[in-house]
Amino acid sequence: MRTSIKLVSSALAAALLLAAAVATASATRLSVSNQNIRVTWTSLEKTSPGVVTVRCQMTLEGSFHTRTIAKVTRSLIGAITRAQVKQESCTNGSVAPFNGVDRYNGTTTPNTLPWHLSYESFNGTLPTISAVNVLFNRWRFGLTVAGLCTGQYGAETDNITFAASLSSGAITSFTPVVGRNTLSLIRRDAGLACPASELISGNGRVTLLGNTTLITITLI
Length: 220
Known about the structure:
The protein has 1 helix and 18 strands. By secondary structure, the chain is mainly beta.
């Protein structure tokens, strides 16, 4: 009898392990609770190493193309269609996203929107994901630091990656990944000198567009 019980227990354990392995292996997609998103930073920092840090309040709005995201690196998953900086909040300079509305160097900025969002990777061990990394492309802005630099940043080859940190599936922060947070100087329009690159940092908050509901990401 004891031998039979041991055999049944072993078989049950093996079955559970197999089921878990199959579930993990088949979890090739992510599901988002809502497609329309807003990301806000009370202080998004653009730092020229050893020179100056410009801080501004910034808001991005956009959407995921679908509620289901395949875990395929560099696959296009969404777009940012609105970018706004609260100019009066800026310190040590000013930042103008190239949205076709803001003013930069005496003129209205060109419009480089939409900015593309691509799936990059995830952090953690399946089936538990601690963060989803999202790649930004086409991000472009004008930076002005009085008497020092008036320049355009954001080359097509810049790969700005943000980590959407998760807690119980909800996105709790949206922060640039160190080592993947560099924007390149495209052109200097005025000033004594412009740094060759800018580092982006700051903890953003992701919510459903139009209210304060958090966005959740789950494995399916």
